[in-house]
Each structure stands twice: as C-alpha cells, then as structure tokens.
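Input record (one chain):
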Amino acid sequence: MPETLVLTYLWGDTAEYRPGATLGPRTLDDYELVWIVSGRVTYTLDGQDFDAPPGTIIVARPGFRDGFRWDSERSTRHTFMHFAAASLPDDWPTPDRWPVFRTLTQGDTVRPLFRRVLDDWCDGSRRRQVPTRRVCRIVEALIDSLLLPTPAEVGTAMPVALERALDWLARAVDDEPARRISLTELAAAASVTPKHLCRLFAHSLGRSPMETVRLMRLERSLLLLARSNSPCGRSPTSQASSARTTSHGASGRRTVALPPL
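The corresponding structure, as predicted from the sequence alone:
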C-alpha cells in the first residue's frame, strides 16, 4: 500500500440551515468530514444521539447510518467535504479505528487545512471530480491531524519510538557535533517510518525532528561555552545528558530556556 493518500473524488461546500431543520437519516457511501462552525447540532449515528457543539469535527465513513438535527433556536452553519479514496497511507490506522468526533482546540492545524481545501477545491461545483495531487496532500495532512491522539489519550508518557529517536540523536550530536543527520536515519533508529516520526515529534514536542536536531546542537554549543564555569571533572557529554533530561522530561513537552526557534 502506498504511503500517500490517493483520492478518486472530492467535493464539498459551506451550508447554512434554518432553526429546527434536519438532514437524514441516510447511509453514506463515501467519507465525509463535517466541521460545525456555529449552532449546536445533534448528530445521530446508528440510532444514538451525540451533542456536536461549534468546533466539533465529525469524521463519517462509508456505511454510516446517520443524521443531523440542527439547532432549534438559531441558524446552523457548517462546512463539509465528501471524498472517496483509492488507497490510504500505510501508517494510518484502519478506518474502523478512526475517531468519530474531534473537538478543535486553540491554534490547531485542522481549521487552516480545512479552509485551504475549501478555498482550493471545494466550491460546490466539483461533485465527484478527481482532485489535484496538491489538494490530496492537503487532505492527507488534515486527516493526519484528526488521527493524532489527543493529549488526554496520550497522557504524560513519551512514546517509546520517540524515546529511541531522542536517545540516538543525543548520542550522535555528542559524538559528532558536525555530522549531517537525515530524517531517514533518525526514523530508522526509532524503528518507524519518517512520516510517523514527524507526527510523534509534532504531537509530543511541538516541533519537527530537524528542528530538534538544531535545538540539541544549540544546547551542546551553549554547554561547551559554559564548560570553563563547570565543576571540575564534569565532562561535556555528562552536561549534555543533563540538558537532555531538562529538555525532554516526563511530559516530553518542556524545553531548555532558549530563545524561540
């Protein structure tokens, strides 16, 4: 299976419903992403009702028997996109394991990606047309963001693959500071694909693997500059190890006190 998303069609638009309107029940024959922009919605799936307030993304899949009851007191506005896929990235979970709901958070990547797809392709006039490769990549990035575990699901434990990558990276930077480190070899050290490693770094550390390489090198440079003020007998390597503990503690989200990168 290829590592990229291949869409056979994509279409969508923005819709507004009057108070108390309904849609469905219906049976989906494709995928649909629904972003509730304003108004509270009751989403019915297989006979069970779910509250979907503004800021909710509904991830519906082929075979879903669903329906919508729009806000009874005011108009409801939402954006949506339908698509069918010839193939899915091989590092995604199977669709039956995808979340049905995601609540958008401040500064998330989903909103700008969703808007970009709508602006570039989904104007309501391209029903079942094959999207460009560029649009497919944007949709893939959008779904990537939706498939990432939420902080509550992840907790404070750092993924094992990320720990392996950081340990290998720290040793590489300590041993050969000027060595050129590629994403491919860093992913190999973590025993995951480069794409999956990028997701782990973004979700747990809030930055890319290559940004982390740069930060580690900067940390090491600062430690070497401060070596003359260090206690006697403490090597640069041991200092770097201490810095790694400060930068990637139990939560995996703290960084050393450095200027923003």
